[in-house]
Amino acid sequence: MPDTSFDILIIGSGPGGYVTAIRAAQLGYKVGIIERDYLGGICLNWGCIPTKALLRSAEIFHYLQHAKDYGLSAEKVTYDPTAVIKRSRAVSKRLNDGVGFLMKKNKVAVIWGEAAIDAPGKITVKPSKTEAIKGALGPGSYEAKHIIIATGARPRVLPGIEPDKKLIWTYFEAMAPDMMPKSLLVIGSGAIGVEFASFYRTLGAGVTVVEVLPQILPAEDAEIAAFARKAFEKQGIKIFTNAKVTKLDKGGSSVRATFEDGKGTQTIEVDRVISAVGVVGNVENLGLEKLGVKVDRGTIVIDGYGKTNVPGIYAIGDVAGPPLLAHKAEHEGVICVEAIKGLKPHPMDKRLIPGCTYCSPQIASVGLTEAKAKEMKYEIRVGRFPFIGNGKAIALGEDQGLVKVVFDKKTGQLLGAHMVGAEVTELIQGYVVAMNLETTEEELMHTVFPHPTLSEMMKEAVLDAYGRVLNI
Description:
The chain is of the alpha/beta class. It is built from 14 helices and 24 strands. The protein has helices at 15-26, 41-46, 48-65, 81-105, 171-175, 191-202, 222-234, 288-291, 326-341, 370-375, 391-396, 424-436, 441-445, 456-465, and strands at residues 5-11, 31-35, 109-112, 114-119, 122-126, 140-149, 153-155, 168-169, 183-187, 206-210, 238-240, 244-250, 255-260, 265-270, 272-275, 279-281, 295-296, 299-300, 313-315, 355-357, 363-367, 380-386, 402-408, 414-420. The strands form 6 sheets. Strands 1, 2, 3, 4, 5, 6 and 19 form a 7-stranded mixed β-sheet that branches. A hairpin with a 5-residue loop joins strand 20 (355-357) and strand 21. The longest helix is centred in the first third of the chain and has 25 residues, at 81-105. The chain starts with a strand and ends in a 7-residue tail after the last helix.
């Protein structure tokens, strides 16, 4: 008979779940992870990773179309949608297999099925619809002193625009489409919405984005969002803000969409619609209500260490609330198990979690926006540096972008950093490290940045905040 007793059981094997399992195993705990669908969760299989593979194909296609800009020749450039999607799925499969390897390497037991918590320390696992992976434990009763919920989230469904998987898509269908639409409506302009808008537009589709709020990319600094909007519109993406889709009429192979944008009612006909109006936590069927676990607005309430209000039950990642990011889930899980171990880790500081959007141009940020800093009554200094003043950006043919920093005028503390342009998703971590180390403006200005690099703009933006900018 298999051993069904563990120190820690984790429900969900997404980035938060599997990383938490590995760290718990490193700390000497006997760990099991329960999964109903696929190792790696949404991120590896239907989110972060495969979308980046799709966007990379679109990026290469864009460069080939503009080969003449680099003194090169590439004629009659086309793409094979089946091959593009196949590559994306192969990337996911490779990483999915990698998670399985990591579980074996760290001696984490994989339990296949759907979990419900009967009581603190007790879980029943029922069969799931997905075929069990080789070597996994199966349905049954399990015990653990500590139970960590890492069940993630799923696409939000709004009345009247319910996805049907054929004409109205969520990100699942948008990632592996049955056809490449010639026209597309994206409802919602958060990270998911603009990434898909960017992907399909680059491959030639006519794209319209409708956002209910006044700015696209609502979580970003207003100046950065405005810069991105101009870039998207230059690419041919039609954007409507302060707008709401009121009706979707489905035909045999198209959708007639009606929306209001303050100027009146507009109607467009498109091949497909992508609903990208956010996600909701997977809190159902876990037994939380019976146990008295506090849930607020669809997510589990926790403290800075992943603890819920019920002893022995914890939650991490998307199911525990925003920001809904894989790296937040991973770090949250490590904090959780280290706190269980008594290592006294620092609690999660959400202001230090970077956000990245992989559209074209890329967007990245950390900390407070300019507006938020002012709202919090900081006296601030703001620095900016445009890509057009950077030699490496010009050499790359990527001279459209902006780096922006926000400092506390009194202390020199870096409050926030915001970027739009080529490779900013890689650059942002420099500011994240600086903020974690409580680096001041003077220390940043005395740091030597290599030349020629895009990263030089990070220092120039700091210099600009203090009236010392050099190259613009």
